[in-house]
């Protein structure tokens, strides 16, 4: 029996089956994410937390439409940089975590963050512009909501059977928090954005649960609950 070297078997598998081996996944990430953050005037390492990077983005958005244009230009460069490494942002976060030397949880937040950017610069751009003034007027509160909603959902991360519940909790928390600080339209935008981001960053199996979330119009009673939630978030920031 002829025993082929492992390297030959791997190369043949890639050629015939058309997939990248684990060793190839996220090879581009180290450079691409470093360059992306440099565009936001942040030098790595260390790599910023989700809340910190959202804060950097919020600072650029203070320039309104011009700020959004700048962010989308930076995002397009990042997407082109990662064009040959799509599995890195759409699959398991473990490979990205290894490349950046961060936790799987932090890597998953990076996946979600970049998926949010795709939505904001694509199908969600018009809705973002419609709500941009409120996000600018309440920049600190906005960053606080996004950070706290993730923190409130963390207890579920250790139970694989409840990951979809975590995705739902995160999405509804963002919806209700932004409804309280801005208006229903802002909550609807954040809800739709998070559903899109979660679907494309490792939570595709949660589609049945995410589909049931109502992002649109809200009753007075539900809005009252949202105000209560937002008050809790601000107190705990």
Automatic annotation (TrEMBL):
<protein>
    <recommendedName>
        <fullName>DUF19 domain-containing protein</fullName>
    </recommendedName>
</protein>
<feature type="signal peptide">
    <location>
        <begin position="1"/>
        <end position="18"/>
    </location>
</feature>
<keyword id="KW-0732">Signal</keyword>
